[in-house]
């Protein structure tokens, strides 16, 4: 996730501005509410970003991705197994509202925001590729390209991700 943020900074103006939160963000938000994570963005103006990927670990066995797109006024939940997660979506809406009040000292108008489980997305055909699917949802969206991958590409994406992490930089 940090490589997505770095890439957007290196290619500012070319790609959407991204601030990816880490894997500990969502569990802490769900457990402690805004007060548990408010300091995590003290050096970041979240509302100056376009896309905020939020990794979600469900039941310690399955990875999903929530993506906040501020210019499009959307919060989508991407689950490669097709399961909705309304508590995560609700928590992210409340988080954005609290973040706006705390950091900008004004309420966030969520009128017109679309908050939903993403439809018509690729599905995994096994029980081991959820993490790769989640990362690829974030990868494609932060590059501002349509989600066109499938289960068949997961072995390639696994190798590509390992090489990118080892090299400290995303390809493309």
TrEMBL record:
GO annotations of cellular component type? cytoplasm; nuclear inner membrane; nuclear pore
Annotated ranges, domain Ubiquitin-like protease family profile: 1-141
Q: Name one GO molecular function term.
A: deSUMOylase activity
> Would you identify the family this protein belongs to, as annotated?
Belongs to the peptidase C48 family.
- Check the record and name the Pfam families matching this protein: Peptidase_C48 (PF02902)
State whether keyword Protease applies.
Answer: yes
**Cited SUPFAM superfamilies:** Cysteine proteinases (SSF54001)
UniProt KW keywords: Hydrolase, Protease, Thiol protease
Descriptive protein name? GM22760
InterPro entries, per database record: Papain-like_cys_pep_sf, Peptidase_C48_C
This protein's superkingdom? Answer: Eukaryota
What sections of the sequence does the record tag as coiled-coil?
A: none
Q: Which PROSITE patterns match?
A: ULP_PROTEASE (PS50600)
């Amino acid at each position: 996730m940090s490589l997505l943020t770095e890439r957007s900074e290196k290619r500012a103006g070319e790609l959407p501005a991204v601030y990816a939160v880490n894997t500990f963000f969502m569990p802490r938000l769900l457990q402690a509410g805004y007060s548990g994570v408010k300091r995590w963005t003290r050096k970041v103006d979240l509302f100056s970003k376009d896309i905020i990927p939020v990794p979600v670990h469900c039941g310690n066995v399955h990875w999903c991705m929530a993506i906040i797109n501020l210019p499009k006024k959307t919060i989508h939940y991407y689950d490669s197994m097709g399961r909705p997660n309304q508590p995560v979506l609700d928590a992210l809406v409340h988080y954005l509202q609290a973040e706006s009040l705390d950091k900008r000292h004004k309420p966030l108008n969520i009128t017109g925001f679309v908050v939903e489980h993403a439809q018509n997305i690729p599905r995994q055909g096994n029980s081991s590729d959820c993490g790769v699917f989640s990362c690829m949802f974030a990868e494609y969206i932060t590059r501002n390209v349509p989600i066109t991958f499938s289960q068949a590409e997961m072995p390639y994406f696994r190798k590509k991700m390992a090489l990118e992490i080892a090299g400290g930089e995303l390809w493309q």
